[in-house]
Amino acid sequence: MKLGFGSATAPVASGPVCLQCGTAAPSTTMTFCRRCGLPYGAPPRVEAELPSCPTCYATVGDDGRLPSFRPARGRIDLVEHMVEHEDNPVGDDDYLETLRRGDRIVIDRWEAPFDLVRRYLVTGAIDGGRRRDFQHSAIVTAMSQLKRWGPGADLFGDQAEWKLARDAVTTLMERYHRA
Question: Which residues does 47 contact at the CB level (< 8 Å), separation at least 6?
């Protein structure tokens, strides 16, 4: 529901959410998470692996919540955080989808794993996550060089292919974050 000022929306109650796994309750009558066995709203177990937002890759804190994009709301559960991304996108994902070919992304004449490139664009981190293998290609090499030396670097022993890939990734980054 839109409010009268700007694009701010009224808080949307997502219902009960498990703070350990981020799963929303299928109905308001349920009191325990089927996945974790914790009561909805209870803090996560200390030893549990905490969920991350699939949009911005932020991991919830020890309380199972993330800071709201609207500071007056304080800390919110993962489901509310994902709803807030409708008004606070991390970049131009519609444009990025136009470059997608299956599970790969085609940037100029190169291709790389889509998820790895999107994660880099959002977080600036090249690591694809704990459980993913690091995948090498001209795009991934370009991303690591951009992270280390920036877009305007003149590298000793540079290869023309790497320079062209860095330029392509820089153009993509500028276009993605412009939205």
Answer: none
Distances (CA, A) of 131 to 104, 127, 128, 142: 18, 10, 8, 22
What residues contact 69, with CB distance under 8 A and at least 6 apart? 84, 87, 88
Residue pair 67/58 in contact by the 8 Å Cβ criterion: no
Q: What is the CA radius of gyration of the chain?
A: 20
Other C-beta atoms closer than 10 Å to the C-beta of 25 total 19
CA distance 108 to 106: 6
Strand order in the sheet with 104-107: 100-101, 104-107, 110-113
| Residues of the chain scoring pLDDT < 50 | 1-12, 128-134
